[in-house]
Amino acid sequence: MGYVGVETAGFQGTTPEEAAKLFRELQLAVPSAHTSMPIGEAKQQTLETMRILGSTRIVSGLGRDNFLTADLTKRSCEKL
């Protein structure tokens, strides 16, 4: 179909390792992935998933509720 890459958004029914293997077989790059921010308890798992995929950009959000006030927005910016 002409695709040169994909942007993942979870691995329902598979693992990052299996997905990465398939992407390599299909010669598809994974320039970015929708995943958790690499902070707190998710840090190591997120970084490991990104390493497995060979991806360098995280597409993530903190959710709308984290931007309802100026103070919440400032705290969100500090996290990001």
What structural class is derived from the secondary structure elements? alpha/beta
Number of strands: 3
Strand content: 15-25%
Distance, first to last CA: 35 Å
Rg over CA atoms: 15 Å
Topology, element by element:
Layout lengths: L4 E4 L7 H10 L3 E6 L8 H11 L3 E3 L10 H10 L1
Parallel strand pairs: 1-2, 2-3
Structure description:
Helix content is 39%, strand content 16%. With 80 residues, the protein is an alpha/beta fold. Strand 1, helix 1 (16-25) and strand 2 form a beta-alpha-beta unit. The protein is elongated and about 45 Å long. The mean pLDDT is 92.
Short account of what is shown:
With 80 residues, this protein is α/β, with parallel strands linked by helices. It is built from three helices and three strands, in the order βαβαβα.
Tags for this model:
alpha/beta, 3-stranded parallel beta sheet
